[in-house]
Amino acid sequence: MSGTPFWLSSLRTAAAMLALLLSLGFVVWRQARALEALAELDRIGTRRMLLVAELAELDRRVQMFESRAWVLPQAERRLGLRAPQADEIVILPAVNL
């Protein structure tokens, strides 16, 4: 045996084991946080894709509502408006002020 007492050797071994357990515990904690962050990133990515799809649908609806093919029948049905016949159109002369 060497000149170090048994209790000191045991204490060093216990300290080394404690340091190893603490470092392994830290690695597990860090990995758990990383997995949580990845799950949150995945949720955000999914939400973003849904919002992009919703934006595309809203753009499509705006284009439809601005189209002449939709506006004319709605103006006729809701407001009683209609396109004028050729003999109903009067062109006024331009006036210079």
Give structural notes.
- The chain is mainly α and 97 residues long.
- The protein has one domain.
- Helices cover 75% and strands 0% of the residues.
- The longest helix has 61 residues.
- The protein is rod-shaped, with a radius of gyration of 39 Å.
- The model has no long low-confidence stretch (mean pLDDT 93).
How big is the Rg? 39 Å
Low-confidence regions: none
Tell me how many strands there are: 0
Label the overall shape: rod-shaped
Our measurement of the CA-to-CA distance between the termini, rounded to an integer number of angstroms, reads 118 Å
| String of helices and strands | HH
Summarize model confidence as the mean pLDDT.
93
Summed up, the helix count is 2
- The percentage of residues in β strands lies in under 5%
Oligomer, anyone? single chain
Structural class: mainly alpha
Q: What count of structural domains?
A: 1
Helicity, as a percent range: over 70%
Largest sheet: none
